[in-house]
Structure formats: C-alpha cells, structure tokens
Amino acid sequence: MNKYLVFLFTAAIAACNSPKTLDNTFYAFSNCMRTMLDCPESTSEQVDVIGALGYEGLGGHESVDLVALKQALDSKNLQLPEIYIGIYLKEGKIVLPENWRTMMGLFRGTEVLFALHIHADDFVTPDANVDQLFVETFKELSQEAEEYQIHLGIYPHYAFYCEKTSHALDLVKKVAHPRFGMTLNLCHLLKVEGESGWEQKVEGLIPHLKMVSIHGADGGDTQAMGWDRLIQPLGEGSFDTFRFVQYLKDQGYKGIFGLQCFGIQQDCKEALRHSMQAWRNFQERYSEG
Fold first, then answer.
1. CB 266 within 8 A of CB 36
2. What are the pLDDT digits (tens) for 33-81?
3. Are 123 and 163 spatial neighbours (Cβ–Cβ below 8 Å)?
4. Separation of alpha carbons 13 and 56, rounded Å
5. pLDDT digits (tens, 9 = 90+) for 245-276
6. Is it the case that residue 16 has pLDDT exceeding 80?
7. The dihedral of CA 42, 85, 263, 235: what is its sign?
8. Band (122; pLDDT cuts 50, 70, 90)
9. Burial degree of 252 (CB within 10 A; 0-12, 13-18, 19+)
10. Contact criterion met (CB below 8 Å) for 151 and 112
C-alpha cells in the first residue's frame, strides 16, 4: 500500500471515529431581556447575566440602544449575532426603519444577521405584485449587505405578511444572493403550519437558513395553542426540541441557534439558567448519538 492510500485510509478511520459535536453558536434573543419577569434594567447588567450563564451572545432589536448593546457585548467578548427588524409596505412603497443606515454602519464587517419580519398594509395573503416589490428591494439591500459584510434573512412570523416558510423560501430564491436567506422559527412553524410532518417542511430550507430559533413547546394541535404553550424555556413542554435540533444538525445546518423567550412568565435569570442547562444536555446527547 503506497503512502497516499495509507493517508486516505487513516483519514477515513479518523473521520469515522471523530465525535459528533453540537458546536453551533447559541445565544439569547433580545426578548429574553424585554418580555420575561424581573429582567435586569441596564444593558451592562443584561450582558453580565448572559455571559455568566454561558450564552455566546445576546440578540438585538431595532428599538433598543444598539450602540450601548454592542459596546457592552464587545467588552465581554460576547457576540451580537442577530437584530430583529421590521420592513413595511405602506401606500405602495417599501419602508425601512429610520435608523437603517445607522445600523448598517454600526455593524459593518461583523457578519451580523438582520432578521427581517415583513408587513404589507391591506394584504393578509401573498400577492405576486407585493412579492415583486419586496424582491426588488431585497436585491438592492443584498448588494449593500455584501458591501457592509452583514447578512439579511426573512423572519417568517405568524399573522404577518410572510408567515409561512414556503413563502419565505420562494422570496429567497427570487432574490438569489448569498447574503440573503431566511430564518426558521420553531414557535411560528408550529403555530402557522402545525407539528405534523415538520421534518419534510424544513428539509428544503436548510441551505438557505441564516438562523434557527428554539425553545420548549408542547406538541399536538399546535395551531390552536397560545404562545404560553408554544414558547417555554428550553427543555420544557412535550414537543421534542432536541429531535428538531438533531435533525437540522444531521442535515448539515451549521448556522446559529437563538433562544426564543417571548412572553415567558418566569423569572428571567431562572428561565435562562434552565434553558442553558437544557442546551448543555442537548450537546451531550448529540455527541453520544
């Protein structure tokens, strides 16, 4: 056996024996510090909590002081992986947040994700003409994203103009830019499309995903459930969120996972601690599988 074949054989053995690792970035959504109980008030305190509990970062929101948040996270060597931002169609024109340019400049070169939830006045179902307006705008914004080295991703959201993953995927394919993709949000997937057959629903999304949000949830007739059952601390509820994460990872997803916390009526620190413990358990289970 020549040296080249020996090298290939050794590499193959090493690959087979290498442990599986759930090493994706795991961070907390902005709403973990805005919508749960007894949240720290100052940005610095919020970042301290996130860092102390082991999260790799904290998400942003267009309504918060992003300069202060970025500075606080930078000081602790933590990440600001994603910012939640609304895009609107009003009177036939696409409207961006007033601070859009400021945000672009502030995060130049950071590879941050602008997670875009989409709204269109008077339209509750997808419309071809409305889609085209958004696609044209997103193509222009994608060129800017390339220049600023950031990412853009549609955030499908229950009862917003783009609420289905299939609609978001259709828009992403029409924009056709590597800086433009979509997010997968477990609570909205369960609310809008239901639990049944979720594997088939998400499989085709994976190459286009910029972020996946996770949390605890109940299974069953999820379309009839309220947010109190669809958004729980990670590790709670009857829906198998580990299986959801495992499936995405096994199918090749390498992106970030964000912890969705909207409206959880529990103490902020305790809910975040519980969720981090669940994530650590996920990592152990995945490496053993």
1. yes
2. 999 999 999 999 999 999 999 999 999 999 999 999 999 999 999 999 9
3. no
4. 33
5. 999 999 999 999 999 999 999 999 999 999 99
6. no
7. negative
8. confident
9. exposed
10. yes
Neighbours of 27 (CB within 10 A): 24
Q: Which of 87, 92, 105, 82 is nearest to 28 (CA)?
A: 82
Q: What region does 124 belong to: left with phi over 0, alpha with psi -120 to 50, or beta?
A: alpha
Half-sphere exposure of 268 (CA within 13 A, CB side): 20
Query: Tokens 């912890």 label which residue?
Result: 259
Interior angle at CA 111, CA 103 and CA 154, nearest 5: 75
Encoded tokens for 148 = 């600023």
Nearest to 148 by CA among 116, 179, 190, 193: 179
Cβ of 25: how many Cβ atoms within 10 Å? 16
Residue whose C-alpha is closest to residue 141's, from 131, 152, 128, 156: 152
> Between vectors from CA 216 to CA 215 and to CA 217, what angle results, nearest 5°?
120
pLDDT exceeds 50 at position 7 = no
Nearest to 268 by CA among 75, 58, 112: 58
Tokens describing residue 284: 């152990």
How sure is the predictor about 10, in pLDDT bands with cuts at 50, 70 and 90? very low
Which structural domains are found in the chain, ordered by start?
Answer: 21-288 (3.20.20.150)
